[in-house]
Amino acid sequence: MATTSTLTQQKKPERSLSPWQIARKKFFKNKLAMISSAFIIIVTLLSLAAPFLAPYLSPIPDVSKVNISSMNITPNSDHWLGTDKSGRDVLTRLLYGGRISLLVGFSATLLVISIGTIVGSIAGFFGGFVDSMLMRFTDFVLNFPFLVFVIVLNTILMGIIDGLWVLIIVIGVLSWGGVARLVRSKVLAEKENEYIMAALSIGCSPFKVIVKHLLPNVMSTIIVQATLIFASMIVVESALSYLGFGVPQSTPSWGNMLSSANEPDVLQGKQWIWMPPALIIIFTILSINFIGEGLKDALNPKSLR
Q1: How far apart are CA 138 and CA 150, in angstroms?
Q2: What does residue 89 show for φ and ψ, rounded to 5 degrees?
Q3: Is 89 helix (H, G, I), strand (E, B) or coil?
Q4: CA proximity to 256, closest of 279, 236, 240
Q5: 234: domain CATH number?
Q6: Is 1 within the bounds of a domain?
Q7: Measuring CA to CA, which residue among 96, 257, 251 is closest to residue 163?
Q8: Structural domain for 237, as ranges
Q9: Which residues of 19-56 are buried (b: 16+ CB within 10 A; e: fewer)?
Q10: Is 77 a member of any domain?
Q11: 219 occurs within a structural domain
Q12: Close Cβ partners of 249 (under 8 Å, ≥ 6 residues apart)
């Protein structure tokens, strides 16, 4: 009996894991999400290190300088991915283009999530007249013909702000409506819980209730939505740049590299010029979507066991 009592006293109770710790363990067990995360990290690091890697990867590290003597060279030991019609190294432009495409995608996503979260949380928390006005404004933004307004605003603001940031601002300002609606619906459901009523009853300000109580409980939804928006923003940048209304042509981006495929001779006989950016866009979008699916599964409250 004494031995049993001693063992009982020495045995420590198991520590329960928080929902975030459980979600992290579930995400790490998702092989597809982890492989996708590794791919995104590698692409990001290579893009950030482009100024240091370019001199070692190509005898033409300048991404904008035209080299007539090196036009349309097929992939070889000097130019691993060949050169384009202006004699610029494709691999070097691919690395520098990743910096721009990922910057546009991340910055636009941050802007979209920020505006959408602020509008949605305010509308959902206060309700009534405030909710009605903000949602009608959201509907107004959602009804904008996206492509037309991007082209018009990009043209108007091009001489005032740097072309890259014009694109980021225009995309962000026109794309937050879906996030606002999603956050509003989550806040409307969450604010009916007892802990929100208790916080209000002891005199917490609306700002404190939203920031400290509501947003942490809808953060998992916002994180998953951010990954999906990140992927769509990269697609939008590539599509607009391909059409000539995105990143300025003098700035390398994956979309600008794809614009070379407009020419039939390049599309049919010089695949090394447009295939690398096309493949990197495809794999990047797939990886981000797999990460989003992994986060969605890991943060699902019904699966936190």
Answers
A1: 17
A2: -65, 125
A3: strand
A4: 240
A5: 1.10.3720.10
A6: no
A7: 251
A8: 22-51+93-303
A9: eeebbeebbeebeebeebbebbeebeeebeebeebbee
A10: no
A11: yes
A12: 256, 259
Cα separation, 203 vs 290, whole angstroms: 43
Q: Is residue 58 situated within a structural domain?
A: no
3-class SS of residue 176? coil
What are the C-alpha distances in Å from 122 to residues 34, 195, 208?
35, 18, 12
pLDDT digits (tens, 9 = 90+) for 21-33: 777 888 888 899 9
Helix axes 128-142, 177-190, angle to 10 degrees: 150
Does residue 82 sit in helix, strand or coil?
coil
pTM: 0.85
- Tokens describing residue 197: 């009523």
For the chain, how big is the Rg over CA atoms in Å? 25
Two tokens, residue 249: 């042509």
Q: Strand, helix or coil at 83?
A: strand
DSSP 304: -
Contacts with 136 (C-beta within 8 Å, 6 or more apart), sequence order? none
* Residue 7 pLDDT level (bands cut at 50, 70, 90): very low
213 and 196 Cβ atoms separated by less than 8 Å? yes
Kindly state the tokens that stand for 165.
Answer: 């940031």
Contact 284, 3 (CB under 8 A): no
β-partners of residue 89 are: 83
- Count Cβ atoms within 10 A of the Cβ of residue 242 and give its class: 0-12 exposed, 13-18 middle, 19 or more buried: buried
Domains in the chain: how many in total?
A: 1
For residue 120, what are its two tokens?
A: 């949605």
> Which is higher by pLDDT, 281 or 79?
281
